[in-house]
């Protein structure tokens, strides 16, 4: 098990500047990562417009979101093997081109069937971009640089849910729903050209045979899990179909885990969880996804349902959350190096939980400056949480294991966010039932935010585990050095 650098070592060594090659890689991969995450949220604001333009029910248009998420989840498990087989830089370029092709097909779609199929193509490319980009970054960075690299990874993750609706609303109002896809094409092509020229080339001939049974089990389980949760969120409640799909998905994933521990060359190395620090970081990543990303769906709905704001105004009102998250994200790397990932993540989790309390007391006329202050503070807690958790997860692993860890951490974060979204959607729907006056609806949102606080407190528990495990490993490492 790899030792974690001590506080003394971290303070004694000045931060290593990024190499020119790493700087180029970060700039190139940020293009694809931003497009991938933004497309998970930017389409939501165009659903009504698409439904009217294509003359189909909103329930049919909702499949454009679901198709993207299903394809996104299905492709993640194979990214580790494909990066070995093709080379990470080559696979990243292919993924970005597939995403761009899917965007063009979306913009040219003449009916809902074409649009849903095109969104699935987009999802196949988008699902591979972030895991493969992270593999490239982490291979090029040393352990002392890992916190700063992970802070760059966190930027599109925390900003996409906040600025996506704003960008989408402006584009739909100004140029039609097709523009939210057309804008991806020049950016995607530029990113692909830069990736081809600037990312480090590397062969992929050392990959073993593809674990086809493992791929079918993992992809089937993740697709079923994503579909079941999306169905619950869309219908604001569980149905026999969604429950059946979720049970089937759980069985697939359980069989995948058991099988992966027994075969010599599994699709994903589940033995990583024998490392206590990685396990604690992975559990924290999942829990933060439930508490933090699930809670992000409520404020846009509050502004629209209770305050009567349009899509563009709602997006602008969400800017303080993004500002707070971005500012804290910049502080997360130096704090992680100084205090450790567990301590910093615990601090961020506590800030996020405490700063959610004001939203429990929402009214129909809560002053916007007060909301903006609370949103910025809560966003800071979110921004302070993610970077240290990812850093702790990667720092404890040898470089050759990072390609197996990356898709697993991406899946945990996505699944956690989906679970949080589904649960909070159900709670909010039940609270809003029968309430037609703005004051009653505001009270419904306040009650739902109490659930967000409960989820945030629950997310602090694995953060404490990460803190304790990290401290124990540091103490063990120091003791070993003193006796050697």
Set out the fold topology.
Blueprint: H1 7-12, H2 20-38, H3 47-54, H4 58-61, H5 63-75, H6 79-86, H7 88-108, H8 112-140, H9 146-175, H10 179-182, H11 184-198, H12 212-235, H13 240-260, H14 276-295, H15 298-305, H16 311-317, H17 319-339, H18 341-354, H19 368-395, H20 402-432, H21 438-483
Helix pairs in contact: 2-8, 2-9, 2-11, 5-8, 5-12, 6-7, 6-20, 7-8, 7-11, 8-20, 9-16, 9-17, 9-19, 12-13, 12-20, 14-19, 14-20, 14-21, 17-18, 17-19, 18-19, 18-21, 20-21
Question: Could you characterize the architecture of this molecule?
Answer:
The protein is mainly α and 484 residues long. It is built from 21 helices and no strands. It has helices spanning 7-12, 20-38, 47-54, 58-61, 63-75, 79-86, 88-108, 112-140, 146-175, 179-182, 184-198, 212-235, 240-260, 276-295, 298-305, 311-317, 319-339, 341-354, 368-395, 402-432, 438-483. Helix 2 (20-38) packs antiparallel against helix 8, helix 14 packs antiparallel against helix 21 (438-483) and helix 18 packs antiparallel against helix 19. It is globular and about 70 Å long. Residues 1-13 have low confidence and may be disordered.
